[in-house]
Amino acid sequence: MSETQLAGGGELLRAHTDKLLACVHCGFCLNACPTYTRLGDEADSPRGRLYLMRAVAEGRLPEDDSAFHKHIDQCLGCRACEPVCPSGVEYGFLLERARATLARAAGLSFPTRALLYAFGRDLPRRIVGLGSRIARASGIPSLLARLPARYARVRFASAMLAGSKPWRPLGRGRSSGARGQPPARSPHPPLKAAMLDGCVQEELFARVNRATRAVLKRNQCKVVNARNQGCCGALHAHTGALDEARELARRNIAAFEGSGADVIVVNAAGCGSMMKEYGELLGDDPEWHSRAVAVAAKVKDVSEFLASRGPSVGAPLDITVTYDAPCHLIHAQRITHAPLDVLRAIPNLRLVPLPRSEECCGGAGIYGLLHEDLGGRILRDKVDAVTGTGADVVVTPNPGCMMQIGAGLVMRGSTIGVLHPVELLAESYRRQS
Hints:
Distance between the termini: 58 Å
CATH class of the domain at 159-173 and 313-432: Alpha Beta
Oligomer: single chain
Helix content: 40-55%
Number of strands: 8
């Protein structure tokens, strides 16, 4: 029986008992988990949450149990536990089924439903995006970000919007002195590349999509359109709305099949992770499974793609940069060095290490709004690390991370910019032209 045919959440978890039993409770995951290291509660560790999932699957705990709800809800879904797990537990997969269990038993919260509605449908997404861009341009979010602590949610939401603005020093003038190496002929043949525009990325970070297109063209790619594409479904899957995630996946599969692309380039870590798992998401769908696998096989993160081809070297940028690794790039996709290799294609750029760059920033969709205390603690640690580097800019290739870290820097009063790595490479190419 497929997941969509299962009546209750307990059955949904029970269908994956083999995956639950893979956990041997060794504890290697504990120090990798951002919630456990701060709360010290076994139930807020990966193995503790897996134990709760097993209890629900085995009928020892009701699907709407308050403890099950609390500790599953407090998980960031960063998947930092997966790379350190000697048993290969598919924690991200199981977390989504646990949240689907909760969604079926108790429903989704209003903020979550509003988020999924706004970004899962074209017209509401464009309306929200337009309103957000107008508000950001007005400067009002920057003022609201200074509200007293008792207005924590309004202050933080405003800071997220204010922190998503472009960094002003970027794009000013031309580089002085050497212009870098002239573009060399690539040893690789030209490719047709389709891009996922995304929902949050296109509405709030359209500049990143423009930069990505420019970088792909510079690196011998013809950028083709994937008409009728939409949200990748990551937001829906991570909150347990799996049926909606599947519908969005089918839409994108059809769109990218029709593009005729050799490669599908994604510049948002969470979206790339989701699309690479389309085959798994539609594993019970005989009509779409093979199509999902074929599309997923073409998906590449933009840094992964560029690093594999050897990015063209641009003009110098005299700037100090630190790199934050998005969870769904480093833990889910296991891409570690490619973004750094891409940044090294920019002459004169000074790359300084970020302590604990692999740890979650506390973004995770609207986690920071729903869990102000815990999300705030995680974010403050990240901002401390960023400001301690002395960098001019922190780069991170995921829109949620850009907004989260940007919000923390705004509330801290810092002038450090937040950019996507591809923006720096595009600016380097612009100055060379």
